[in-house]
Every structure is written in C-alpha cells, then in structure tokens.
Amino acid sequence: MGTSRDQLYRERMERIERATELKEPDRVPITPNFSFFAARHAGYTNREIMYDYEKSCRAIIKTTVDFGWDATNGPPGLGLTLFSLALLRDHPDVSPLLGRANGVIHDILGERYGRFPGRELPDDSPFQFIGGEYMKVDEYDRLIRDPTEFITNVIMPRTCRSFERPGSAAYLGSAIKLGYENSRFRAMYVNFIEELKGLGFPLNSSASSYAPLDLIGDYLRDIKNVLLDVFRVPDKVKQACDALTPLMIEYGKLTGSSAIKLIGSPRVFIPLHLNEYLSPKKFDEFYWSTLKEVIFGLVKEGLVPFIFYEGYHDPHLETMLELPRGKTIAWFEKTDLRKAKEILGGHTCIMGGPPASLLIGGTPAKVEDYMKSLLEDLKPGGGFIVNPAVSGIPDDAKHENVKAMTEAVMRYGVY
Amino acid sequence: MNGTPDPEKLTVAIADVDEKAALEISQRMLEAGEDPAEVLEVCRRGMSVVGQRFESGKYFLSEMIMAAEIFNEILSMVRPRLRRIEEKPLGRIVLGTVQGDVHDIGKNIMIAMLEAERFQVIDLGVDVPPEKFIDAIKEYQPDVVGMSGLLTSAIESMKNTVESIRATGLTARIKIVIGGGRADEIAREYTGADAFADNAAKGVEIIKAMIVG
C-alpha cells in the first residue's frame, strides 16, 4: 500500500510537470484550489477553518482524498505580501511569515486589510480582502526612494493596530506572539504535508509573488486610486513599479526555493488583478513591463511562475508569447480558453475550468457537458490543467457538481 | 481664451477622459454664466461616448473609473448652482452590494453611469441585507433593483435576496438586475433575477431598455 501511494504521488507530480512543459501526460491533471469549500465538505464553519489549524488541515485532507485530485492547496489565508517586504532584506528567513494571515495572525496583527469570519464577519462568511488608501498620492516619492523603509515605518503602523506605536508593549507583545504562532503553524504545516504525501497527494504551490502595480493597488493606494494615478501621475506610478520589481523577484525566489525544499514544487503563484482594467497600451506601460521582469527573474532561477489572470485577459493574450516557452502556467478566469489555446498552444500551459456559477447553480449533467466539450477542445497536444475559475472551487459549490467535474476529467481527460 | 467655451469641447474632453481639460472647461462655462443644467447635459453626452467606447473595446475599466471620477467632480461643481430642480429622472433605481460582500468599485461606476444617463439612483451601500432592499423598495418604489457583488459567495446571497424580495410580492412591476464580476447567465437563472450585467456599460443599457423601452 505504501509503495502504491508513493507511486501515485510521483505520478501526480509528473502529470502536472508534463502538462506544464507542454507534453501530453497520461491524463489531463486536475488541481483545484479551494478555500471554504473544504469547510462545507468536512462540516466545519469558516471561522473554525480560519482559527483552528487542526480542523483546517483535516478539512483539506478529507476533501482532497474524497475527490482524488492530482494536487491540493494549503490552509486558506489572506495574502499580505506587502508586509513580507518589510523584512525581506534584513530578515529573509522570517519574511514570508508576514505574507499571509489566518484568523489568529489577523487578530495578533490587528491588520485592517481583511475582514474575517467570527470577527468582523459572521462565522460562515468567507474572509474578504478590503484594502484601502493607506498611502497618499504625495507619498510616491518616499515609496520610490526606499520601499522597505516606507513599508516598515509608515505603512505597517497605519495598517496594523498592533504596530501603531513602534516600541510599545503592544508592538513587542505582538511580535513575540507572531513568532510563537508561526512556529505552531509551521509544525502543523510540516505534518500536514507529510500526511498528504503519505496519502499520495502533492501540494500545488506554496510560493508567491506579485505584479508591482497590483501591490500598489491592493495594499497602498487601493484599486480605484491607483487607476486614477495612472492618469494623473503616470511617471510616479511607473517609478514605484520599477522600485518594487527587484523586491518582487527576490520574494518569489525566496518563497520558491523554500517551496522546492518543503513540497517539491517550483511553482510560484502570482495572482493578477488589474490586468483586465487596462487597455493594451496602459497594460504594456504600467503593468506588463515590470511583471514580465518578475516572471523572467523567477524563470531564470528554475522556478515556474503560476499566474492567475483574473477576469478577461483576452485583449492581452498575444503579449504572453513574449514569455519563455513552457516555463509558466496561465490560469484563466473569464478568458475564452479556446481562443487562448489558439494563441498560446505549444507555448504556454493553460489552466482553467467551469465558471463559479456553474459549480454553484448548475447540475451534474450540465457540468459534465461543459467539461466534456472543454476537454475535447483543450486537451489535444497537452499543456492543459483543470482548475476552476475564479479562486478555484467556490465556497458554495454543490458537492455533486464538483464530483461531476472531477469524474469528467477522469473520463474525458485521458490521452 | 475668452468668452464662453465651446460646449462641444467639454463633451470631447469627457469622452477622451481628459480630466484637466474637462474640469477647466466646466469651470469656465459656469463662470461665464452658462446654465448649470446645460453643463450637466453636455457632460452626459461625453459619458455616453465613454460607455460606447467601452462597449466597442476601445476603453477598459480604468477609463470607466476615470470618467466616473470626472463626472462626479463636475457634478459636485454643478449641483450647488442648479437653479431649478432637474427635469424628471428617466427612472429610479435602488442599488446595493449584497449581504456578505463589501466590494463597491463596480457599484460606484454603475451609479455614475446611471446618473449620467439621467436616472435617479438610491445607493444602499455594501453588505446590504435583504430586508434593507425590501424597505428601500417600499420607500422609493423603484423601477429596477440592482444587486452588485464580486465574491463568488455573492451568487448565493443574490439568490437569497431575490427570493426574499419576490416573496413580498412587491416586484410585480419591478425588474431585478444582478451585476458584478461573477454574474453570468447561469447565475441569473439560479438567482431568479431578470437580467445580469458583468460590466457597467452593459448594466446601463439593460436598465435603459427595461425602463425606457
């Protein structure tokens, strides 16, 4: 039994690798991301998933094993990538610990970006990233001059109640609690990975990076303001993106190399948000040029950028041909996957699946039809992985629809 | 330049999302004693071009957001000067982000576009529970109720809200439109809404067709 699970693990890893390298594996891999769908499936509240590590891990393991996917993801958390940059240069070993918040970390930091179930939200809500305007437009120069200094000394005190007054008891106590909590999480996480591995399941990715403009939009200026800045202070926006680019490469490399050691995956997740907000000209000028640098910087290190192109990326598909062939994964949401294959086939591995509405409001028969047709069109020649849009399986997806999606891959995804 | 600026230039400035020019021309028009209602009317024509350019793929969300900002800036200049109550609105819309979701970018673009089209909008804000929609329907008797949402969980929340509203029997002549990043035909059918829009320009078009015909 041990050997066969070991073999399953290797087969699953290889399936994803082959698809990424644009070869035909034995079957199209299915690697859904999910967060609170696992809570529903395992019978926990969202609050329990955010605050109880044991339950969070149980829920993921149960869901992954029950559906038999090719890879799974770790416990859900709110991305706080910006905070990691505060420690990236001076304390890289602990920098990633600040990059993600579960409920406990959210409470310790007193951070203002997120709203959590059981705290600001009812027990069964998903956590939500709100963002906000934490940097004023006249502060671009300070950000450009020294991003690390600005984030550490200006932004963290503004966005974390616990860090409002550096050197205060609240500040010191929180820093200590943060360290303690992270070692508790880490111990659990290592066991979780081992247990999954023993059951034959790899994790898809545990590293991340960011597009520089998204970093400004999500954490500093907020989405609306950063887009207005693109019109009003275009040069400042560009300089800020340039200043953040080397940090994003460094952060991706740091988390990527630790992911290779820990879970054996070189995939560095980069979730894009503002891509669909920008016309091709603005996209190229303010977004793609620096994001491309990040992607190339990671590929050079042997890492595989695993990029989520939110919304409609259709107008920008051609630009993706500028990326190195077979070295990235393109996870699409509303982009026409067939058109994407026409353009990117033989160049970039495409990831996609049914829309959220279908998994929530559809029926198993409708899901099967959708998947059969999708696989017929996307499977040929390799380079396709199934993972539903938008952040994987929606929390409210119906069990039977997720089952239908999975079974369709097993049935129609074989080469 | 002297005298009253050419209104046509204001339409063009807004259509081109040229904030500086648009604000400057509006300011000069108002100072030259132009009827504020006329200034607003000129802005509306510009906004209408913005919507068309979005629909045709020339403009993207960033232009819509910039245009909405310009329109709101001019609106705040014009409003205190309006001598007469504006002509009767084309229709009344109650709009809110559904319970459990606190995102409002899409909703706010929608409001600016609707106001530019001479609709009266009652903004219920974010995380709006079904009862609040129902109270607003009773109070304002809108032609259309719009529900916005970004999260995938908004779909379930919209369904719940639509059902609660329908159960009151208030919707005989009121249409319900769902909107936002995750809205599509499957979600429309599932929630029981009358229509869906996944962008503001489309939303305005649908609502216009519902009210004006």
Question: What labels describe this entry?
Answer:
heterodimer, A: alpha/beta, 17 helices, B: alpha/beta, Methyltransferase, Methionine Synthase (B12-binding Domains), Chain A, domain 1, Rossmann fold, 2 domains, 5-stranded parallel beta sheet, 55% helix, globular
Describe the model.
The complex is a heterodimer of chains A (415) and B (213). With 415 residues, chain A is α/β, with parallel strands linked by helices. Chain A has a domain at 36-66 and 75-200. Chain A is built from 17 helices and ten strands. Chain A has helices spanning 2-20, 37-42, 46-51, 53-67, 81-88, 103-109, 140-145, 147-159, 169-198, 212-221, 223-232, 234-263, 280-300, 337-344, 356-361, 364-378, 399-412; strands at residues 78-79, 100-101, 114-115, 128-129, 207-208, 267-272, 304-309, 329-332, 349-352, 384-386. Chain A is globular and about 60 Å long. Chain B has helices at 7-15, 19-31, 36-55, 61-78, 105-116, 130-140, 153-167, 185-191, 200-211, and strands spanning 92-97, 120-123, 144-148, 175-179, 195-197. Helix content of chain B is 55%, strand content 11%. With 213 residues, chain B is α/β, with parallel strands linked by helices. In chain B, helix 6 crosses helix 7 (153-167). Chain B has two domains: 7-81, Methyltransferase, Methionine Synthase (B12-binding Domains), Chain A, domain 1 (Orthogonal Bundle), CATH 1.10.1240; 92-211, Rossmann fold (3-Layer(aba) Sandwich), CATH 3.40.50. The radius of gyration of chain B is 18 Å and the shape is globular.
